[in-house]
Amino acid sequence: MRLTNANNIPVQIVRAVENDGYTKGEAEMSVTGLLQPPQLSILRKHHEASITEDVADRIWMLLGQSIHSVLERANAGRDGALIEKRIYENVLGMQISGQPDELSLDRNECIDYKVTSVYKVKDALKGANKDWTEQLNTYAWLANRRLGLKIDKLKVIAISRDWSKFQYMRSSGDYPAAPVSTIPIQCWSEEKQRAFIEGRVALHQSAAKEFAETEELPECTAEEQWRKEDTFRVMKPGRKSALRILSSREEAEGWVEAHKDKEKLLIDFSPGKAVRCENYCAVAPFCQQHSKEKESV
Length: 297
What we know:
The protein contains 12 helices and 13 strands. It is α/β, with parallel strands linked by helices. The strands form 4 sheets. It has a 5-stranded mixed beta sheet. A 3-stranded mixed beta sheet has the order 2-6-5. A 3-stranded antiparallel beta sheet has the order 12-11-13, with helices on one face. The longest helix is centred in the C-terminal third of the chain and has 25 residues, at 190-214.
């Protein structure tokens, strides 16, 4: 992978990004890779030397990695926790590995630290963050199976990088009360954890086999693309915000027809976007699915 610096970010930050010490160890795939779409993983491996990322796009990752120093300070002299211990397991013939931020031995708890956005925290507090649930349950299964632990509690300690006291004071109650939020994560049964992990491994193995034989790739789902659906916005001239946002033209036309000022209203179509593909996927330039979808817009 090659790094660019389009925004002329200071060299000290560039060096910090370049000196990323992350490794999945001797594993074929990490937990992070296992949870990614198979198409993304295969394209990244196949085009590794040609992938380009800008330093600016890795700043939040860099800040997230800084939490490791915080963990070292927080657990200095403490015997009741395992910090960033990489755990290996062979699943269906694939060696996978995971590195939980913290395994609390006295509380049977797996803790992961996230530097993230208020938007993600708000969703997670409602129980809507599927990725975090899958990640921590995978860590718990590895810890219990390979280390003989009994992890049955999961939580994320999330630091909201864009938290604002002013926004909290003017919010209606769904805004985090502090820049640090503790978010309990549902812990699945051992059977569900194992079935999920084996399903992900089988999915990646099948995709890799198909690609090796035919060079065909499984397309990412709308969920994996973080796709936002098409919307139809009912607008009134002179007003900036929409009167109503609907998911189909028929619904929008029906709403306009029933409105007392229907003659003055307009319907503005906003096409859905694959947010991950357009803004957060380093292999998008090599992805046929993304190219076809861009051409069809």
